[in-house]
Write a structure and sequence with these properties.
alpha+beta, 4 strands
Amino acid sequence: MSKRRKSDFTIENPRKIGEHVSKTLDYLQCIGASDVRVTCRKHLRFDFSYGGKALWFMLSSSPKDRAECAQIARQIARRVIRQAGMEARQ
């Protein structure tokens, strides 16, 4: 028997999820990321464009420490941008 695949859905107002998502969206806006989209299946997936490239990373949807998760999200975003061959503008 095959597993039923959960469908991804775009979250209309992702800031309502919590402080960690709100701070992550603020950071992405601050560095100049565009077309930011948050989808959820089991974890949150942040899709965004930076310097003409489509990038993404994932976060927990319900972390134990939301402030720490926001800091980790900023670190992950910087790492994803750096691995794409660009530097984040701060």
